Amino acid sequence: MLTSILAAAAAAAPAAAKGDNPYGLVPALREGGLISQTVFGILVLMLFVSLYILFTKLFEQQKVMNQFKRVRSGFWNANSLREASAKLEKNSAYKQIVDDGLAAQEQHTRLTDPVEAHDWLHGSLARSEAMINSQLNSGLAFLATVGATAPFIGLFGTVIGIYRALIKIGAAGQASIDAVAGPVGEALIMTALGLVVAVPAVLAYNWLQRRNKSIAEDLSAFSNDVLGYLASDGAVRPTVAARKGAAAKPAATTTAAPTR
């Protein structure tokens, strides 16, 4: 009896020295075969693409938010929209709105059918806003798709793992730990990985959507100010221009041309 125990310990010593874990991630994927490896690869790809979209969208959003701060601080202090637009960045979202509004104002004089200038300008500015918002929202559909499908992809890997465990139990004739530990471990890994991929994607989607909504509100307010300026030939300006260096003065109201 003692001899058999010593022989078993001697046989297990090399494996323990190597520190190999037969129930780790790599052995579980190797045990699961091509299907489990494919599921694992898809989930990892989803995770990296989701992180890429998150960081790139945060960069784009922050850039537009910084543009709004500069517009709010000194844009309306210029003598004209063209002068103010020339001071903005080349790829600024707010420069695009101003330039589209000025272009629409010039195009209105060339129309042969009678169209109200207000309606024409409003449609052009709304189209410009929609293009900017569409660009900011690009990629968010992928995050929503990952958040909705990643748990089910992980569940598919779980089903395959349990199925393989049942096959091993049937082949062995008994439910031993050695027969089911590998497939069940693989199944649990796939379930956990599906959640690890889905939860950050959902959180990132909701966060980016909220920031996009805030940006859209700023764009809409600025577009309305540009519309008022163009429709009144510069007589109507936002109150921000009147507050420069006049903190002690009462808040000024929107300046409008006298009613005829």
Q: Quick recap of the structure?
A:
This protein is mainly α and 260 residues long. It has 7 helices and no strands.
List the main descriptive attributes of the protein structure presented here.
rod-shaped; disordered C terminus; single chain; 0% strand; 260 residues; 7 helices; mainly alpha; disordered N terminus
Sum up the overall morphology in one term. Answer: rod-shaped
Average of pLDDT? 78
For the termini, the CA-CA separation is 114 Å
- Helix-residue proportion: over 70%
Structural class: mainly alpha
Number of strands: 0
* Proportion of beta-strand residues: under 5%
How is this structure best described in words?
The N terminus and C terminus are likely disordered. Helix content is 76%, strand content 0%. The protein is mainly alpha-helical. Helix 2 packs parallel to helix 7, helix 4 packs antiparallel against helix 5 and helix 5 packs antiparallel against helix 7. It contains seven helices and no strands.
Task: Outline the secondary-structure elements.
Blueprint lengths: L1 H17 L6 H50 L6 H6 L6 H16 L8 H21 L2 H33 L4 H55 L29
Helix pairs in contact: 2-6, 2-7, 4-5, 4-7, 5-7, 6-7
